[in-house]
Structure formats: structure tokens, C-alpha cells
Design goal:
By secondary structure, the chain is mainly α. The protein is globular. The protein has helices at 21-24, 35-55, 61-86, 90-94, 100-128, 136-141, 148-180, 185-199, 206-223, 226-248. It has one domain. It starts with 20 loop residues before the first helix and ends in a 6-residue tail after the last helix. Helix 3 (61-86) runs parallel beside helix 7 (148-180) and helix 7 (148-180) runs antiparallel to helix 8 (185-199). The protein contains 10 helices and no strands.
Length: 254
């Protein structure tokens, strides 16, 4: 057979036993969602939060768990659904897969972030006062007696579940939408960090949330995948979640 047929062009000829690069390197798969997907998840989060607040004016322990968990979980689940319907799934679109290198990177950066966040929180409390430095979740739980099982569920949500869901939104959908617009990584990092801080809808704590978000965004940027930022976020949330658990169980003063 002459060289240069349709099956083997001249410029792609290869030695016997070799596999052409074009057959071993899969084509890049791009997603079909953008900023609208992120805004949709934010709208769902806000709408569900408002509806639950209107339905449960003075929540008991059971409804308190629903009010804390349902908006965040629904928004995170919607983010995953969007990647499945309009993309390639969270593993390819977000890089959400188990890699020890990402886990160790997330633990290392999250540990550094935990130290800086703790110092920043102490300074922030001294500057604005304890009442103004209180998070929305802390305010919602203030003075509420929780059964041990409920307290543990809320602890696990704040420590593990909420960081995962928030990362799906901010360093997943939002990050990916800006990458699709061909923004530089530094610009994506800066804007997603700012939106994360503002999106918590806690104006008194926005500056503190910026400090909290920086190491989490760094973990996403240096690895290029979501797993590291999820782990870093969970490390950052561990001490606040543990503090709320101990207060709820009466082991620490409120």
C-alpha cells in the first residue's frame, strides 16, 4: 500500500507497532454551561432559604436542620445535574475525583488557611465586636438547645457537606464558566474569591470571608481540580463546626 493514503497521511506516518498520537490523546471535552448556570444555583439557594424562613418562623430542632441543610444541598445537587445535562459530569468538568496528591495539597493549604483564618477571626472579633462577627449559622443556633443527634448532624453538615456544596458552586460552576470565557487563572481566582465572600450575604463579615476564601481558591488554582479546594474548605470549617457542636452540647459556654 502506498504511503499517504487516507488511512495514514504522509505527515502522520508511524513505525510498525507504534500508535499515532492522535489515537492516544482524546480530544478536549468542553462543557456547554456558563455564568447562567451559576446564577441559577444561587437563585435556587436564595429562594429555598426565603421559603423555609417564611414557613418556619420560630424553628424547632428538626426544622432548624432542614433550614440549614436543604438550600445548600439542593444548590449543590443542581450544580452536579447541570454538569451531567450540559457538560461531561463533575469529574471531567470540575476535576472532582479522588487523588491523594489533591487530598494532601488540600490538607496542607487548608492547614495554613486554618491558622490564618483563626488569627484573622480573633482580630476581626476585637475590631467589630463579637455580635457583629457572628456568622448567620451561629446566629441561627444562638440560644437553641439541640438534641445530641441533631447537634452531630449540623456539625457534619458544616464540616463536610456545606464545603462540598459551596465548592461545586463557586470553584466549580463559577470557576468553569469564567474559564470557558478564556479568563486568565489569576482573574478567575480573584473574582471567584470575591463572589464567594459576597455570596454568603453577610455584609459585616465580607472582609473576613475574603481572608477565608483565599487559601481555598489557591488550592483550586495550583491543582486545577476541585478536590483540593473541597478538602481545604473542609479543613477550614472543622474548628468552627466543632465549636458549635460543643456549645450545642453544653460543653462550652455560648
Amino acid at each position: 500500500m502506498p504511503i499517504g493514503t487516507a488511512e495514514t497521511p504522509v505527515n502522520e506516518a508511524h513505525q510498525p507497532g507504534e500508535t499515532p498520537e492522535r489515537l492516544t490523546t482524546p480530544p478536549a471535552r468542553t462543557h456547554r454551561w456558563g455564568l447562567g448556570a451559576f446564577f441559577l444555583t444561587q437563585a435556587v439557594f436564595v429562594l429555598v432559604s426565603v421559603l423555609l424562613a417564611a414557613a418556619f418562623g420560630s424553628p424547632d430542632a428538626g426544622t432548624l436542620v432542614v433550614m440549614l441543610m436543604l438550600p445548600t444541598v439542593l444548590a449543590g445537587a443542581l450544580a452536579v445535574l447541570i454538569t451531567v445535562v450540559r457538560g461531561n459530569g463533575p469529574r471531567l468538568d470540575f476535576g472532582l475525583e479522588w487523588r491523594w496528591s489533591d487530598v494532601t495539597t488540600g490538607l496542607a493549604i487548608g492547614g495554613v488557611g486554618l491558622v490564618t483564618t483563626t488569627i484573622a477571626t480573633m482580630l476581626w472579633v476585637r475590631w467589630v465586636g463579637e455580635d457583629n462577627a457572628q456568622s448567620t449559622v451561629s446566629g441561627l443556633l444562638d440560644g437553641v438547645e439541640l438534641p445530641p443527634v441533631v447537634a452531630v448532624v449540623i456539625f457534619l453538615h458544616i464540616w463536610l457537606i456545606a464545603p462540598l456544596c459551596e465548592e461545586l458552586l463557586y470553584r466549580g460552576l463559577l470557576w468553569g464558566a469564567m474559564e470557558r470565557m478564556r479568563w486568565g487563572q489569576l482573574n478567575v481566582f480573584v473574582l471567584s474569591t470575591a463572589v464567594f465572600a459576597i455570596g454568603h450575604l453577610e455584609p459585616e463579615r465580607t472582609a473576613l470571608l475574603l481572608v477565608i476564601a483565599i487559601p481555598i481558591g489557591v488550592a483550586r488554582m495550583v491543582t486545577g481540580r476541585l478536590t483540593a479546594s473541597v478538602v481545604a474548605h473542609q479543613v477550614n470549617n472543622f474548628l468552627p463546626a466543632l465549636g458549635l457542636l460543643l456549645i450545642s452540647l453544653g460543653l462550652l459556654p455560648a
